[in-house]
Amino acid sequence: NNYEYIQTSIEGRIGMIALNRPDVLNALNRTMVVEILSAMESFDQDESIRVIILSGNGRAFAAGADIEEMSADGPIDFELLNQFKNWDRIASIKKPIIAVVQGFALGGGFELALCCDLIFAADDATFGFPEVNLGVMPGAGGTQRLTKLVGKTKAMEWLFTGKRITANEALQFGIINSIFAKEILIEEALKAGGMIASQAPLSIRFIKEAVLKAVDTPLEEGMHFERKNFYLLFSSEDQKEGMRAFIEKRNPDFKGR
Ligand code: HXC
């Protein structure tokens, strides 16, 4: 694939995407966001891929939206570009996405990580929303996703001050899943990804959908949604295979159908 700002590769059943503008700490320009989306959507459609890993080359995961590109824009440009639809599409990828964060994940970079399902971080990972320092605010879900994740109090503090959140703090507040030394981070993400990739893909798919539903639905409606997904899985071949394998005391061979 001919991408300018990202690299893609495949490791077994895992589709890998690496942000690759290390000279500017992987600042996200619009083309890059389109490329990330395009790579994710093609992995999402590819039945041989079960998990997506998103990482950043160099000193950062991503230090935010490209400030230079953005600086001359006005509201009408944003409206006409309708660029946030690409972010919405990233957030609606069906397969599980693991963000692998080393160094900075700031502004749009943090928002991108929050669009993923799991976050594995290096001990040097730093998160934050420095938009206030630029006279703006997050625009790709930062005020919403961070608040739903950590609650109003910490969200306000971090968004008002722009101060950096260390990997340890991020772990403490449930923003990330785990911290690893930089040297073994990607290996650990691949291990976790491989584990998820061995599960029944439709289970993973409907679990992701149901958990995301829980974030913005009242309990009763969410329960209803969960139940329908639960029922639906009983029409899959993998449900038959999974339960048969249990009864026959062997490992299941899931096909994703
Ligand atoms: C464009 C950026 C950039 C960004 C870094 N660079 N972040 N370029 N947009 N967001 C560039 C620098 O200009 C510099 O280019 C090179 O990357 C290395 O960065 P340095 O600043 O020299 O590195 P360092 O001193 O280590 O500082 C790292 C840093 C700092 C603390 C992360 O770069 C920084 O504050 N960056 C901006 C972070 C930020 O405000 N992000 C939020 C953006 S707004 P040169 O050419 O000088 O070497 C946002 C809104 C999202 O994300 C809205 C939704 C899309």
From TrEMBL:
Its EC number is 4.2.1.17. The keyword Lyase applies. It is an enzyme of class 4 (lyase). SUPFAM superfamilies: ClpP/crotonase (SSF52096). It holds the Pfam family ECH_1. The keyword Lyase applies. InterPro entries: ClpP/crotonase-like_dom_sf (IPR029045), Enoyl-CoA_hyd/isom_CS (IPR018376), Enoyl-CoA_hydra/iso (IPR001753), Enoyl-CoA_hydra_C (IPR014748). GO terms for molecular function: enoyl-CoA hydratase activity. Keywords: Lyase. GO terms for biological process: fatty acid beta-oxidation. Belongs to the enoyl-CoA hydratase/isomerase family. This is Enoyl-CoA hydratase.
